[in-house]
Structure formats: structure tokens, C-alpha cells
């Protein structure tokens, strides 16, 4: 396992994060505690140290199970959790990114995790009712109190993360060091704004959904069941299947699994991208971890990028048009916009 820095901090995290969302059977599809323990140990033995959960995952069982697994080795791991989402049966102030919700969530997470601090606390999603100034100040209060060491954000637009971080830096508060976002070969929308923002500001990217709810393993092409309809966002399923077939074909040619190809592709994205692995069995996790031994050559990347490419959208699509490009730079400017966004940060070796 290799390691990298978490954004513009000195915090060392492994190249793959491990998602504990599957810890617990409360939601009818997760792993029982004994299997969660096997996965946790397997990840630790591979050198992984970056564990991801949330206050609401499996109705709190994820944090409780993780807390028990961390006993006696808490300092060996970077533990990340989240707040914002309302727990089942909660009142009107039980969710959201306001100060009251934050304080209650952190208190509950510390209790369930059986720890005195959270290494990384994410704002789980944008709460449109709470001013981001309140959220940023409340997060900084937790950092100053020592209950949280670093703050990060998930499921926010790039412009608002930039605005929040600018405010935090001007006022001496803790800025977001990382962003957790959805990114995979079937959903590359984050490449339009979020990835360029993260690369330009040296913000760590934790990529969730790397296998697109199992679609990129090829199991649906084989007629197997699962959660195919989760997070489709109106995508073209016929086009998605074409991408999956390309992944499966490449994997067969090179002697890899389709999951390994999909995860390895994520590590080639611009900036500091950390795939978030989410497995329901030790066997799945073992296969996913082996993606760290894969290096996709230029031909493999060309094939995967071509079949999964998305339209750049406005303004990048407009600015990249040859006529517009010529009118701006007169033939003497930089190359296409993507050329300056493909500088990968290489993780250092422990």
C-alpha cells in the first residue's frame, strides 16, 4: 500500500480508502459484524489506514462496529465520518449543516466510535437552509476544541466549496482539506468542475461509487441481480453497457478483474484522487485491493477514456472550440484546456 497526503495537510492516508457503509445489516444489504471484522483486518494487513463512515450509515451500526474494531489500535487509523443527514425518526433540527446538528452529530459519533476525536469530519451534503458561514465557523469550533482534526466536504458544487474555503482562509478558520465526490467510468460529471477545482487548489479527492453500484464488475451483463438502478441520474443504460463491455474486455485481455480495471482507472485521474472501496465480503475487498498492483498503459487508458467520454459542457466546450481558441490566443497560447489538467500527483511510498 502506498500513501499520499490529504490535500494541503501533513496527514498521511493510504492510496485506497475503505468505506464502512457496509458494516451492519440494518439496511438489509450490508455485512454482519464478523465479516466486517474480516474485511477490516484484511485492509489493515494490506497497509490501509483510511476508514470512511457516517453518522447515519446502517442507522449508526457502522460507527458502532467500527468503534469496536478500532479498540487497541485507534492511533493506527485515520477515521473519517460525516454529518448533515437526518437520522430516521429525527425532529426538524436533527439533520442539516447548522451548529446544533453538527454538535449533536459529533457527540453521537464520538460515543459510537468510542474515541475522543474524529480525524476527518465531512459535511455530508449541502444544506440549502444553513448559511455556509455558519457551517464553516461551527466546524472550526470543533477543530479548536480538539474533537475534530480536519474538515472536508461531500456533494457540494465546486464554486461553493471555493467560496467557503476563501471565507475560512480570510477569517483564520479551518478550510476544507478534501472533497468526497462520485466518480467512476459511468459517471464522469465531476470532471467538468470539481476535479479541476480540486487539482488547482491541491484538495484531496475521495472518489465514492468507483464500481457504479457493481455495474462495472460486469455482473449485470451476466444476468446477475443487484442495485443497478441506484444513482442512475438518468444515464443512457445502452451507452453504460458499452463502457462496461470495454472494461470487461480489457480485464480479460490483461488477466485482471473488471473491478480492478475500474479502480485503477480512477488513480490515473488528474490531481490527488483516492478511490473509496466499498465491499460486502473479504473476497470482494481482496480483489479490489489488488488494483493497486495494476498500471494501465496508454492504450488501455485511451480505450477506457474514449468509450466513457462526456461532453465538456459550457464554458470548457466553448473555450475549447478551435475557432474560439484561435481568437483568444492567436495560435500562440496554451494547448487544449485538458492538457494542463492532467498532472497526476504520485503517492509517496511508506
Automatic annotation (TrEMBL):
Keywords for this protein: Oxidoreductase
Bilayer-crossing regions: none
Domain of life: Bacteria
UniProt domain NADP-dependent oxidoreductase: residue ranges: 17-308
Nucleus keyword on record: no
Protein known as: Aldo/keto reductase
Amino acid at each position: 500500500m502506498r500513501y499520499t497526503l490529504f490535500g494541503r495537510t501533513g496527514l498521511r492516508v493510504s492510496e485506497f480508502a475503505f468505506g464502512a457503509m457496509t458494516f451492519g445489516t440494518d439496511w438489509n444489504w450490508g455485512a454482519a459484524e464478523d465479516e466486517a471484522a474480516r474485511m477490516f483486518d484484511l485492509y489493515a494487513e494490506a497497509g490501509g489506514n483510511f476508514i470512511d463512515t457516517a453518522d447515519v450509515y446502517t442507522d449508526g451500526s457502522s460507527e458502532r462496529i467500527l468503534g469496536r474494531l478500532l479498540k487497541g489500535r485507534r492511533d493506527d487509523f485515520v477515521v473519517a465520518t460525516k454529518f448533515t443527514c437526518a437520522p430516521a425518526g429525527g425532529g426538524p433540527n436533527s439533520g442539516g449543516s447548522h451548529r446544533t446538528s453538527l454538535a449533536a452529530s459529533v457527540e453521537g459519533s464520538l460515543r459510537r466510535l468510542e474515541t475522543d476525536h474524529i480525524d476527518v469530519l465531512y459535511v455530508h451534503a449541502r444544506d440549502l437552509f444553513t448559511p455556509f458561514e455558519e457551517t464553516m465557523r461551527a466546524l472550526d469550533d470543533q477543530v479548536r476544541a480538539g474533537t475534530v482534526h480536519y474538515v472536508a466536504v461531500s456533494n457540494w458544487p465546486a464554486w461553493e466549496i471555493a467560496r467557503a474555503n476563501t471565507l475560512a482562509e480570510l477569517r483564520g478558520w479551518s478550510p476544507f482539506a478534501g472533497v468526497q465526490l462520485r466518480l467512476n467510468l459511468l459517471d464522469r460529471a465531476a470532471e467538468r468542475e470539481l476535479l479541476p477545482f480540486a487539482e488547482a487548489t491541491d484538495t484531496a479527492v475521495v472518489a465514492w461509487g468507483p464500481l457504479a453500484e457493481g455495474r462495472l464488475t460486469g455482473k449485470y451483463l451476466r444476468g446477475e441481480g443487484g442495485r443497478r438502478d441506484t444513482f442512475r441520474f438518468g444515464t443512457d443504460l445502452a451507452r453504460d453497457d458499452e463502457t462496461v463491455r470495454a472494461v470487461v474486455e480489457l480485464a480479460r485481455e490483461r488477466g485482471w478483474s473488471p473491478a480492478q480495471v475500474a479502480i485503477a482507472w480512477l488513480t490515473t485521474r488528474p490531481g490527488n484522487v483516492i478511490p473509496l472501496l466499498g465491499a460486502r465480503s473479504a473476497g470482494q475487498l481482496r480483489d479490489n485491493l489488488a488494483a493497486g498492483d495494476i498500471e494501465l498503459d496508454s492504450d488501455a487508458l485511451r480505450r477506457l477514456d474514449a468509450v466513457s467520454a462526456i461532453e465538456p459542457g459550457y464554458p470548457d466546450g466553448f473555450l475549447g472550440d478551435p475557432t474560439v481558441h484561435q481568437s483568444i490566443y492567436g495560435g500562440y497560447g496554451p494547448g487544449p484546456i485538458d492538457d494542463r489538467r492532467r498532472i497526476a500527483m504520485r503517492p509517496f511510498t511508506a
